[in-house]
Amino acid sequence: MAESLKVIVMLAMLGSIGTTMIILACALPTYNLWWPIFVVLFYILCPIPTLIAKRSDNADDGVRAPNSMFATIGIVLSSYALPIVLARADVIQWGACMLTLAGNTVAYTTILAYFFGFESGDSSIW
């Protein structure tokens, strides 16, 4: 019980650090544009293919796992590509892009730690 509480507190702290980096990329007076906040949509979409594949009752696990992994990787790469494209198009500054990329890394590390820490009991799909 105490060990899982420590893990939950650690995940909450990592999640808040990642979110703070994203908000700083948007709200600092130097940058002052809120376009990087759209990567939060990718955070919401990221675990959905894996959750759908794990909850499905279909018997062909050999097809579900690669398809869900492909969709998840596409969503994660899109969240890294969006700030780079915005910075290359001079919509946001490169400092905001770097803060967003750092926030992405922390956020996805948090999501990955959650899936390995709490969802590993029923990980027959992987």
From TrEMBL:
Cell compartment(s), UniProt: Membrane
Family: Belongs to the OB-RGRP/VPS55 family.
Domain of life, per lineage: Eukaryota
Major subcellular site: membrane
GO cellular component term, pick one: membrane
InterPro entries: Vps55/LEPROT
Disulfide bond as UniProt keyword: no
GO biological process annotation, one example: late endosome to vacuole transport via multivesicular body sorting pathway
Keyword annotations: Membrane, Transmembrane, Transmembrane helix
Organism of origin: Anopheles atroparvus (European mosquito)
Stated name of the protein: Leptin receptor overlapping transcript-like 1
Lineage: Eukaryota, Metazoa, Ecdysozoa, Arthropoda, Hexapoda
Membrane topology listed for this record: Multi-pass membrane protein
